[in-house]
Structure formats: C-alpha cells, structure tokens
Amino acid sequence: MSIETFLLQRYPGSGRPQTMRDEIANACNAFVKSGLADAKFTKEFCSGSDQKFWSCVSEALLAARLRNVGLDPEPSHGGGPDFLVIEDGRKIWVEVICPEPTGVPSEWLTSELGNVVSFPHEPILLRWTSAIKEKAEKLIGSSDGAITGYIEKGIVASGDSYVIAVNGRQLRNGPFPALFGISQFPFAVEAVFALGPYQIRINRDSLEQTGAGHQHRPLILKPKGAPVSAYTFLDARFQPISAIWAVDVDGTSAIGNSEPMAVIHNPNAVNPIPIGFLPAHDEYVAKPIGTEEFELNRIEGCLK
After folding, report:
1. Which long-range contacts (CB under 8 A, 24 or more apart) does 30-35 make?
2. pLDDT at 211
3. Per-residue pLDDT averaged across 91-98, rounded?
4. Which H or E run contains 51?
5. Residue 283 has what pLDDT?
6. Residue 186 and residue 184: Cα distance in Å, rounded?
7. Whether the Cβ atoms of residue 59 and residue 36 lie closer than 8 Å to each other
8. How confident is the model at residue 208 (pLDDT cuts 50, 70, 90)?
9. What is the pLDDT of residue 207?
10. What are the residue ranges spanned by the domains of the chain?
11. Among candidates 68, 174, 58, which has minimal Cα distance to 116?
12. Is the confidence at residue 26, as pLDDT, over 80?
C-alpha cells in the first residue's frame, strides 16, 4: 500500500482533510527520497498501528521542519540516532520519539469539545519523563549496563551534540496541542528541571499570603512502583544530552492549527547547541546564579 492510499483511508474527505493528507504525504515522500527513512518506513507507516504511524510521521515532519529553516538533515548510518545535522563541521544528532499514551486516562484522550474532564498532568508527565529517559539511555547506556549507548558503540563522538526530540501528539485530546503542563511551562521543562505547579504559601493563623512560587518536584509518584525522577538536567550523568526539542506536530498546521515547538537547553551540557539553532517558538535557558542555583528564562525562538 502506498503512503497516499493509506492516508486517504485514515483521513477521508476533501478540503481540509485533503490539505492535511498532502502535508503529511509530501513530508513522508521527501523523507524517503532523502535517504533518511529506513527500509521498513513505508510498511510501518501503513501498518495500521497508531504507534508506528505517529513514529514515522514525527520523524518525517521534524525533518521537514529542519529543512524549512535551512538545515539539511542527513541519514544516520550504522544503527545510530534518527538523523544528523552538520553545521560548520559540527555534528548534531537528533533522536525522535512520539510516546504512547500508556497510563493516560481514556476519558482525556477521547473527550469531545464541550465536555469537562480533569487534566491528567501527572500521567502525561510520566510519559515525557519515560520518553526522555529511553532516548537518553540510547546515548549513554543504562545504569545497570543492560543497554550499550551510542557513545560506547563509537557512533556518537565525545564532541558531538545530541538532541532528544519528543512529539507529544499522542498525549492530548482533540485538535488542540497540549505541550504545557500544570506549571504552565512545557512538560519537558517539568521533566528535566524538577518544576512543579505554582503554589501560594499562607500563614495558618493570619491567613495572609507569605510567599509564592513553583513547587520543587524532583520525584513524580507512580500508581505502582518507585517514584520517577524529574531532574534530568540537574543530574551530571546526563551531561551528554544537549537539549530537548519538545513539539506537538501532526501536519495540521497546513489547515491553520497550532503546532508549538520549544527547545529546552541543558545548562550542564558538555556539548550545548546554539540558541536559535532549532526551529522553535520558545526556548528555555537556565543560567547559573552563584554556585547553587539556576534561573530559568524563556527566550523567543526563531519561529516567533
């Protein structure tokens, strides 16, 4: 089955569906023609599996977004990350993941416009932390030695940059993107900087406000099992991770929908990427204050 035939089955109709089909098909065909796709790309795209479909679409659309800003992603040979960008002789690897909505309540994923449902911010955040951990271990290996990373394999060199691109498309409901968590910062920021919801402190006796600020949340509780850490960029083990490219893309920008993108820079990265390098609406940069603190700043990206 061809990419176009499968898309017609998945998104039937003319007008807006046709425009969206063309957007995805053009990105996927360009992805295959460029040599970025592996041999099973079209088969998995047309397999009927949502996870395989969105994995393929994520890679193709992000490669297209890189080309839109003048970058030229190259194939990664030898079992390496999804693709490679070489800028001024410097290698910047990009590893893409579109996490499945495992553990996210079905009432959130299937809710219709006008219905009121609770925001399952912690189950969604757990999917972000899991996705980042999975792709971080692809680079540095697992702490128990069960996974050998790209660095140890000699695929990614010590001077190369490594970006984890996470597409949150499967973690939202309806047509509206949900890149931001309970803190009003992107889920990716919450996952790497131990950032929790905004809170107000009140004196028990006077009932007056005594302070306010974002909660420090280094661990996320799971329904079962041990808590999950949410301070990746504050952990020295993850210094080889240059940044998280957090996106919510599905091809619907072609029909006027928002497809937000943000870059979260690792302040402890051994090989950081430049601000403004990746296409994004916002970038988040943590600057050191003294020897013990960071100040997180939002900077407008090149797409603003």
Report:
1. 30/60, 30/63, 30/64, 30/67, 31/59, 31/60, 31/63, 31/64, 34/63, 34/73, 34/75, 35/75
2. 64
3. 97
4. helix 50-68
5. 98
6. 7
7. yes
8. confident
9. 65
10. 88-300
11. 174
12. yes
The CA distance from 59 to 54, in Å, is 8
Tell me which residue has tokens 């968590």.
181
Distance from C-alpha of 174 to C-alpha of 117, rounded to nearest angstrom: 12
What is the pLDDT confidence band of residue 113, given thresholds at 50, 70 and 90? low
- Calpha distance 278→165 (Å, rounded): 11
Contacts made by residues 184-187, CB under 8 angstroms, sequence distance 24+: 185/284, 185/296, 186/246, 186/262, 186/264, 186/282, 186/284, 187/124, 187/125, 187/128, 187/246
Query: How far is it, in rounded angstroms, from Cα 106 to Cα 80?
Result: 34
Q: Where are the alpha helices (DSSP H) in 117-261?
A: 121-140, 150-153, 187-193
Name the token pair of 303: 């797409």
Token pair recorded at residue 61: 């659309």
Give the separation between CA 232 and CA 241, rounded to whole angstroms.
Answer: 9
Burial 99-112 (b: 16+ CB within 10 A, else e): bbbeebeeebeeee
Share the mean pLDDT of the chain.
91
